[in-house]
Amino acid sequence: MAQGFAQWGNDLYTGRKSYQIVGHRRRFYIVAIVMVVLSFGVLLTKGFNLGIDFRGGSEFVVSNVSDTSQQPAIDAVAEVAPDEVPRVTSVGGSAVRVQTDRLTADEVTEVRDALAGAYSVTEDDVTTAFIGPSWGKDVSQKAITGLIVFLVLVGLVMTIYFRNWRMAAAALIALFHDLIITVGIYAAIGWEVTPATVIGFLTILGYSIYDTVVVFDKVRENTRGVLDQTRSTYAERANLAVNQTLVRSINTSVVALLPVSAILFIGAFLLGAGTLRDISLALFVGMAVGAYSSIFLATPLEVSLREREPAIKEHTQKVLDKRAALVADAARSTDDVSRDAALAAAGVQGSGQLLPGAHQGNKAQPRRKRGH
Amino acid sequence: MTLAVLILALFASIFAGTKWSDASTTPGLALDLEGGTQIILTPVATEGKVTDETITQAINVIRQRVDSSGVTEAEITSQGNNIVVGLPGTPSDETLDLVRKSAQMRFRPVLTVGAPTPVESTETETPAEPETPVTPANPSDLAQITPAIQAEFDALDCTDPANLTGGLGDDPDAPLVTCADDGTAKYILGPVEIEGTEISNASSGMGTTAQGVSTGQWVVNLEFNKAGTEAFEVVTDRLFSLPAPQNAFALVLDGLVISAPSANAVITDGKAEISGSFTRESAALLANQLNFGSLPLTFEVQSEQQISATLGSEQLEKGLIAGAIGLLLVVIYSLFQYRALGLVTVASLGIAAVLTFGVILLLSWTIGYRLSLPGVAGIIVAIGITADSFIVYFERIRDELRDGRTLNSAVEKGWDRARRTILASDAVNFLAAVVLYFLAVGGVRGFAFTLGLTTLIDLIVVFMFTHPVMQLLARTKFFANGHPASGLDPRRLGATTRYAGRGRVARPGTQDASGTSDAAVTDAPVDEPFGSPTREKVGAGASLSGATTGDSGRMTIAERRAAARRAAQDSGSTTDSSTEGDKNEENR
Fold first, then answer.
1. Which parts pass through the membrane (chain A) (predicted)?
2. Are residues B319 and A356, on separate chains, in Cβ contact within 8 Å?
3. Contact A14 B402 (CB under 8 A)
4. Residue of A nearest to B516 (CA)
């Protein structure tokens, strides 16, 4: 299979085999739009299941206990509210602190009784209180400010690096796509949103842009000097770039997803709810969507945007006209040789990446060996 | 080499740290993994209004102060009117002050200074004058010292520790009788002239004399904002001409005078320096407190208790197991994909792991960095991002090999291009880390720190380990000859013949051990194998990427050949090989 994969990689690189990803971009746009709309739908109808860090909750302190182990408290809370994942902490040497999501007054009483029973203390030894969120509005506010500043800066950096704002715009749109779908899928699964989840989402930001930059770097390399030739259009060159980085994208995604899925598997099936499960789900979904979008969304979007540039628009038209003329030539031609030649020239569809020649001077000469 | 020195230096300093200082060979763990101390703060009831708003405000200020004192992830929640602060480890007195001290800074002119002990009022006649409110000409006016204030001043005993606790609630518009914070003097001060809110920036450092020579004393440097600068200029202008002690102004922190320097000049640049009996820690503490404004309330510590980890210890254990499994899977996959080259990935990841561990140890010793579970997850995720740099690099090398380069030049050429990509994409990651670190608070900040750290380590490893190792490997026979298990077999990579000039082509994969291009050159035309019927045979040789390729024609060589061959088959006439060679020449 490795043989096949390597061969496949070769074919993608040389352009013998090429997936028309840019050519079929409308299809991918529709998929993206549907996914984003669905995600919004989930967010609006179902919303987030915000955890104790965001909404505050109930706190029980059981004092004068002889045994500060955590399990009795977990069992006691599970009796009353089965979905609840309490945080149990021992405080000092003889007290246990139990934090849960906000419970109703009845539930609070029940949990208190259950805790008193579990630790065999009197009810007076169990105090209850409501606690505020540790991840308050101000923390979210600051995180969002940071996010916006990051997006603006990253837009600037990419504009400068690629010397084209349309590339930056495409990358940012792809980023929003990733983020919204990741958040949507997380909300659809309905696991509690904890600070770990938010950190997972933030990691996705970096990862998505990172992945897109790698692909765009190849696009830029392939489309350098595209206007100086008439063999292939900008879109075809870009498509070749996507195909050529496909192996890289697959390898990278697999390598990035392997550790995350290991955490997700262990977190979800062995540990149950908790930091590891939350962060790894957010990361798993986000990385998968990010890898998808860097191939199937970012580059097609970039091509769509770039084709609005007058120079590229004109060039595309010119290439297509020429090609049509060649095909027409071939049809008229009675000579097999010239027909073949014309058809070959017309049918390339962007395979191969040719750059117009330039005289290299002595750079074309073999390099002198450095002595060793 | 540099890398080896770097790693050695890193671990040597950590080792030295464990030997002579309080560094340890295990990283500090955050609240969620190790537990710490829970401090319950209750607002001091007499002062200020305790509302939800002031509590939220206080939480904000406390969080900023804790964050800026290091990369500890504190957990701060409200519980009714109390504030519960969870800090990892055992907090020092400085840290406690950080969360409970209001740090309200006010600037008042000095009216009188006295010895700290109470003075028996010599004037037996009690104030007979009616208590008419005095309207002072300016805040330094001695007329403000009414007999009542004088009596209060006389009675004040600054040697009594009870009088040195400070507090809020002094009336900013009235004179104040108070002690120096170390109990060495007592003061009568005029009304507040500048509020601490006018301070735009505070920092601690070594004090310097006017000549720029270090005084060896720790000081806190203040910078005022525009309004503060103007007010400060007016004050120093007035005090400058007054006799001692009225030419001094007092810096009042939470109702106690921490310093009362005299104005020796009119200060117009809005910069002030507080010197006093500071240590490095206390100067940093005060600067930190001043930077984030005062707490609207003063708190007292109601309880301070050890708490266990909020997450079970099995979470960390299982997380590490998950990380190990993930790493193993990555190793298997990269060996499968890249054969022997995968070993380079594995070794690089190993180096990255060692570096990360070392840096985390170093940081948890020097700046109190603590690893939380999200941090651990972030590091595990970094495996993927680090491995990606190698993948980008290896794929580039393979691309160059496909173009028919020798391994040596493929490594150099591939590195040229991969470096750009790696730098650009890591720059984005690093940008994200820096922005989030400076703008966000709490857990996000800790995460950003980890992200930035792993990004930098990725760069170090790729530049200082992976690339040099590849250069070395390219010289070995095993890799240079493209052994099938090397992962760089040009034949498997489908490298096509490369045009070598003068009508001849070089076949790949035949370079000698030293990697120099001693390519077997055969006469053109080569009999090109026909591809499988499903694949259109478009010459990869013509698709030499990069600017060295010259092609201004319509057809690639291979296309032209294919066309010629078909023509030859159809018409039965043969194409002269020399003609084709000429065409090739044209194409160069």
1. 28-48, 143-162, 169-189, 195-216, 254-273, 279-298
2. no
3. yes
4. A369
Examine residue B539 and state whether it is found in any structural domain, yes or no: no
Q: Which residue has the tokens 């700290």?
A: B116
| Cβ atoms A303, A235 nearer than 8 A | yes
Chain B hits for A167, CB-CB cut-off 8 Å, are none
Q: Which one of B299, B314, B341 terminates a domain?
A: B299
Contact B465, B421 (CB under 8 A): no
Tens of pLDDT, residues B368-383: 777 777 777 777 777 7
pLDDT for residue B507: 52
Which one-letter amino acid corresponds to residue A160? I
Interface of B with A in 303-362 (CB under 8 A): 305-312, 314-315, 318-319, 321-323, 325-327, 329-330, 333-334, 336-337
> B467-526, pLDDT tens digit by residue?
888 888 888 877 777 777 776 776 666 655 555 555 555 554 444 333 333 334 444 343
By the 8 A CB rule, do B190 and B177 touch?
no
Q: Nearest chain A residue to B536 by CA: give it.
A: A16
Is residue A30 domain-resident? yes
Q: Which of B336, B374, B442 sits opposite A196 (nearest CB)?
A: B374
Helix axes A195-222, A299-306, angle to 10 degrees: 50
The pTM for the full model equals: 0.70
Cβ–Cβ gap A149/B439 under 8 Å:
yes
| Chain centre distance of CA B113 | 46
Same domain, B163 and B276: yes
Residue to test with chain A: of B83, B87, B395, most A Cβ within 10 A: B395
- The CATH number of residue A264's host domain is 1.20.1640.10
Q: What is the DSSP letter of A126?
A: E
d(CA A313, CA A300): 15
- Cross-chain residue pair B322–A89, CB shorter than 8 Å: no
Q: Looking at this predicted complex, what is its ipTM?
A: 0.77
How far, in Å, CA of A104 to CA of B443, rounded? 29
Q: Are residues A44 and A187 in the same domain?
A: yes
Does B218 lie in the same domain as B289?
A: yes
Substitution target in A203, A228, A243 with the highest count of B β-carbons within 10 Å is A203
Contact (CB<8Å) A275/B381: no
- Evaluate whether residue B495 is within a structural domain: no
> Are residues A86 and A184 both part of a single domain?
no
Cβ neighbours of residue B357 closer than 8 Å, sequence gap 6 or more: B27
Chain B residues close to A356, C-beta within 8 Å = 551-552
- Domain extent at residue A82: 57-131
How far, in Å, CA of A9 to CA of B494, rounded?
A: 9
Question: Would you give the DSSP letter of residue B349?
Answer: H
CA A169 to chain centre: 16
**Mean pLDDT estimate for chain B:** 71
Please give the pLDDT value at position B30: 75
User: A56-89 as b/e, with b when 16 or more CB fall inside 10 Å?
Assistant: bbbbbbbbebeebebebbbebbeebbeebbbbbb
Q: How far, in Å, CA of A170 to CA of A293, rounded? A: 11
